[in-house]
Amino acid sequence: MSHEETPVLDPEAASAVIEHLYDRGWSDGLPLVPATESALATFLDSTSRDPDEVVARSMALDREATVRDVAVHAIMAGCRPEYFPVVLAAWDALSGERAARGGGFQSTSGPSPLIVVNGPIREELGINARGGVLGPGFRPNATIPRAIGLTVRNSFGIVPHELEQATQGLPGRWQVCIAENEEESPWEPLSVEAGLAPGVSAVSATLLRTMEFVDNRSFTGPEDVLRDFADTIQRTGPWIFRHASVGIIMNPEHAHLFASAGMSKQDVREWLVDASSRTEAQLAAVGKALSGLPGGPYEPDHVHPVFADASLANLPIIVAGSRNAAISMVVRVFSSWSGHSFPVR
Amino acid sequence: MVGLIIDPTASARGATTASTAQSAPPLESLAGLRVGLLENTKRNAAAILDVIGASLQRSDQVGELIPMTKENFALPLPDDLLERLTTECDVVLIGVGDCGSCSASAVADGIMLEARGIPTAVICTEAFEVTATAMAGLKGRPDFPYLRTPHPIANLEGQQIADRGTELAAAIRSHLLAGEGKAA
Fold it and tell me: Is B74–A106 a contact, with Cβ atoms under 8 angstroms apart?
């Protein structure tokens, strides 16, 4: 039996600290962990990156955050020190996103980062890739994206009702970090599709507006499910520009259905890109006709494809979740994805 | 003990513009002035600016109307566009800030042009007053007199666009001739 000394825990002092952090206006609404110089040193020791390196920037506000600033937010978010390189890679990835560098975090659509982790770091940190992958219950999945949100709030100064103008926002805005279920995927990982070597720990990220489930357990073949995906993808509600980018967080059962029919990820992508469209008349019926755009006016039966092309960037497919039901998520990408993955370093 | 807790906003505050940005001088007359119409690709922005420009030609005999487009409505003016606006225009009308990022960005653009001596009139919808004003403060002109118009404008049509543009033209005229503090 161990006789290790238990540190003295003072719950009343902890409560007072939590209230103090709320009073300073630094919180996203949930309790924060206080950042101290000793914790900061520990976090900075977990990376070889220069504490003064700028990793996050808001061009719209001319503000930036360094490795040191992001470490403070990671501490406050509840990250463990070993998560910190992933938080930095997530900022590397978001800094590659035009919308995140620009005014995306101020937008009325209130978009959330979507953070996808590939490679061995998933197992090392215990980032959930399987059942309940979108949460809750897993510390790295919950705290890594929260560190991004606290950077936006405290380093960029993008605070709700001020420079943040989300009309309704979305549930779990700073909570969407998943690992790809590479072990149960029949296909190559997202980071490998994006050009990195297999086995390299990597982060990919974009901004999303929301997710919609496709629950299809009654299929008799792959085309049933593909048509079901296309029906959700081409819904008019999210249609605001000529084209859109859409992601799929695909559960392993759907992925294996397609793979066993001989389809690669790119085959699935091309099928969905060809099948997802609306006519000018259908868009006009909901007040979203595209005739005012260059190339218009259009005949009522003119077909407008959802996607500009069948590229990885316009339709990323990530395998995640459990094999216990054929349920997937269609991800509404805010703007577009760069198509790049960033190594954890 | 509180002093041991790191303030996560400290570095952002340190970077904030401390200086006061310059305003452009008030104008005595609009006659003959070249008017930049800087639209930000938001629906109806170009149409409303066109109405305003034509209205100012009738009321004040302004000179050439120079339409320009800011392709990325959320970001600061790119250098080449800033250069063109500064050299080719005597006053610049900017619109329409009717979203979370573009309203703040329109105000930032107006302040940047005024600091270069170009009088501006920035149009934002009332729904985004808080964020537009927050950006004005960030850029060193907390009282920057941008013009507020009722929200929304994206779904106005035909005569409604003409009416809104005509109303705004009168307000812009007063704003440009009165100088800071009397408009909006």
Answer: yes
pLDDT (tens digit per residue) in A109-150:
999 999 999 999 999 999 999 999 999 999 999 999 999 999
CATH of the domain at B111: 3.40.50.2300
Interface-testing mutation among A18, A108, A207, with chain B (most B C-beta atoms within 10 A): A108
Domain count, chain B: 1
Q: Which domain holds residue B34?
A: 25-178
A260 contacts A270 by C-beta, under 8 angstroms: no
pLDDT tens readout for residues B27-54: 999 999 999 999 999 999 999 999 999 9
Residue A163: its chain B contacts at CB < 8 A?
A: 104, 131, 134-135
Task: Tell if the CB–CB gap between B12 and A72 is shorter than 8 Å.
Answer: no
Residues 6+ apart with CB under 8 A from A62: B15, B17, B76
Q: What is the ipTM of this complex?
A: 0.91
Partner residue facing B12 (CB), from A68, A76, A156: A156
What confidence score (pLDDT) does residue A131 get?
Answer: 97
Q: How far apart are CA B133 and CA B126, in angstroms?
A: 11
Shortest Cα–Cα distance, A291 to chain B (Å): 13
Q: Give the residue among B56, B51, B53 at the shortest CA–CA distance from B65.
A: B53
Question: What residues pair up with B58 in beta bridges, in sequence order?
Answer: none
> Which of the residues B1, B4, B5, B155 would you substitute to probe the A interface, choosing the one with the greatest number of A C-beta atoms within 10 Å?
B5
